[in-house]
Amino acid sequence: MNKAARSSESKKVIMVTLAGNILLAAVKITLGIIAASAALVADGFHSLSDITTTLGVLISLYISQQPPDENHHYGHRQAEPLAATGIGIFLLIIALLLGRNMILRVIESRLTFPTNIALAGVGISILVKEFLYRYVIRIARRTQNAALEADAWHHRSDVASSLAAGIGIIGARLGFPLLDPIAGLVVSLLILRVALQLLCRAMVQLLGRGPAPEKLAAIEETIAEVEGVVEVMEIKGLYHGPELYLDVKLTVPRDIRVDLGHEISAVVRERVEAIYQEAEEVLIHVEPAEITVGEIKEDLKEVENRLE
Fold first, then answer.
1. What's the rounded Cα separation, in Å, for the pair 15 and 35?
2. Do 13 and 147 belong to one domain?
3. What pairs with residue 252 in β-bridges?
4. Is the pLDDT of residue 1 over 60?
5. Residue, of 39 and 19, whose pLDDT is higher
6. Which structural domain range is residue 299 located in?
7. 109-130 b/e (C-beta count within 10 Å ≥ 16 → b)
8. Same structural domain, 202 and 217
């Protein structure tokens, strides 16, 4: 799938997710207030925080797609982890405020007995979130988009959040009103967990994340198989947002013609970019090896044919 199609699919998923979270936040907060359920109100704020997260993703997607300019030679892909950092801080604040409110409810004995309407809100939440999970995970796997797949599992974790709220409401209805704010506290802890995960991932990306050793080894093997490459001396990689930039140092016969050496570099670049679609740029440094062209003459036929 090309970048334009991938981007179009991603935007469509984001808009559907945004609409779903707006609906859920409005329903849960409204029903939570009407039904006097602290847990459902807390779960509603969880959905409200999801709206902010989705908006942040949408804005960062727009910024990250802007072309390189004189001040950003490698584009604007770092907008994505930067936005994730801001979203993580916002969610952290929401989680702490919600948790504080639930703890104060328990200490001050501000306990309520939610009505059956609250359970309707929980049921709607579970159904919508399970639909969003199944929809987003399908598109994520089709587009091979790791960010969307993570968002899909976020929807599945929201189902757990709503279940916690439902247990608290049922407990309160059965005569244990303390379970309602406790369920709200559990929801705030789930939001806190998501916030910390977002911040950790964003920090790793902002500090500069390289590909896994297994991926580098596979790329090195791909390069070593190219005709005319004597040895792969060094390979380094850096992710700039979702795009991978590679720096490769390899050797060719010491007496090879300049045009053949250049063509070997071109073949290496084409092979890597064809197999690893996240590879945005492959910078190749060619060094002389100890051997001569005569020792690997047969291996150079394909490269020579490309020049004819």
1. 30
2. yes
3. 288
4. no
5. 19
6. 213-307
7. eebeebbebbbebbebbbebbe
8. no
